[in-house]
C-alpha cells in the first residue's frame, strides 16, 4: 500500500501540506500567561487570519493541497467511541480525573463537534464548568490570574513542530513545554483514526518517547540524509533514538543523520529558525550560529550489531558538501551578514523559508535584506504578510508540515 506520507527532501515540489488556521486561541493569550504560552506578544486574530489565508491561497495557487488538521480532528470525532476516548485522554493529560473529568465531559457533550474542536484549541474558561464534587486541583486558582481550566493552544498554527514527516512516515513528537503537548495528542489521534492516514504510515517515534524532540529541528535534506538540531527543544537522546529507528527499520531508507548543535535559547529555538535548505546546493543560514567555522556537528551512521557510528565535524559548509555529495554550496547569510540586519531579520524568521520547489520559497515580507539577497542568488521568492503571524516567532516553514513532496531529480 502506498504511504499517505511521502517526504524525501526539503525542496521537492510541495503537493500536500498540513496546516492550522489561527483561531480564538491566539486572542486567549493574556499578558500574565504569555510566558507559559511561549509568546512574546499578543497577535490580533482578525489580521492574523487574513495573513494566514493569504499564505494558504498562495500555496493553493501553486498547486498545493492545504489540509487543516482541525478539520481532520472534526472528522474522527464523529465516531462516539473515538470522541469519548479523546476527551478522556485529553482531560487526563490535564490532570482531570473521576468526577471532575465527568463534569467537563458533560459540558463537552452539549457542544457540536465543531464547537468542541474550537474549544480544544481556544481553551476552556473556568466559568463554563460547575464541579459537582470539586477537588483542590479544580478550585485552586479560581480567583487567580488564569481564567482557564484547559489552556488555549496559541502555538498550534506552527504545525511543523508537533510532528515531522520524513520518508514514508513521521515522528509524533514529545514536545518540550507543557503548553504545546496537546498538539501532538491531536496528531496521534488523527494519524491513528483518520482514514487518510490510519494504517498507511510509519511512526518512527511516538509522543511517549521520554526525550524531547520537535519538528522545527527535523530537516529532510534528501532521501537518505536527515539534519536534526540539538537545541532548546530537541535533545541528543531523542536524536539517538530516532537514529536507531531509522537505521534499523526496513521501511526507512535514511542512513545518515547530521546532528547540529545550536544555541539553546528562545531566539534560536529550532534549527529551521537559523538554517533552511532552499535549493539543491543553496541554503539560508543565520551567521550567529557559525562560531567562526567551529561548530559542534556530529554525523551518525549505522554501525555493526545495531550500534551507531559517530563522526565529529566543525564546519557546516564542509559537512553539507560531504553528506550531500556536492563540490560547492551557496550559503546565504540572513540579513546579508550585516550586524544589525542579520539578528533583526533572524528574530523575524528570515532563515525560516518554506521551499515549494527547488529554488522557489515562501517567506515573510518583512525580511527585506534577506529577500533581496536570495533573489540576487537566483531564488524565486514569494512574500507573505507578517504583521501578526510573526509575533508567534515562526515563519513559513514553521507554519507548514509537508505531507507529500514530489521526488527531486538528482542534480
From TrEMBL:
What reaction does this enzyme carry out catalytically? L-arginine + H2O = L-citrulline + NH4(+)
Pathway listed for it is: Amino-acid degradation; L-arginine degradation via ADI pathway; carbamoyl phosphate from L-arginine: step 1/2
Q: Report the GO molecular function annotations.
A: arginine deiminase activity
Q: What's its EC?
A: 3.5.3.6
- Per the record, the domain of life is Bacteria
A Gene Ontology biological process annotation? L-arginine deiminase pathway
> Does the entry feature the keyword Hydrolase, yes or no?
yes
Tell me which residues this entry annotates as catalytic.
Answer: 398 (amidino-cysteine intermediate)
List the subcellular locations.
Cytoplasm
Q: Which InterPro entries match?
A: Arg_deiminase
The protein's UniProt keywords, in alphabetical order, are: Arginine metabolism, Cytoplasm, Hydrolase
Q: Does the keyword Hydrolase apply?
A: yes
Sorted alphabetically, the Gene Ontology cellular component annotations on this record are: cytoplasm
Show the Pfam families listed in the entry. Answer: ADI (PF02274)
Family label = Belongs to the arginine deiminase family.
Protein name (database record): Arginine deiminase
Which species is listed as the source?
Answer: Fructilactobacillus fructivorans
What's the name of its gene? arcA
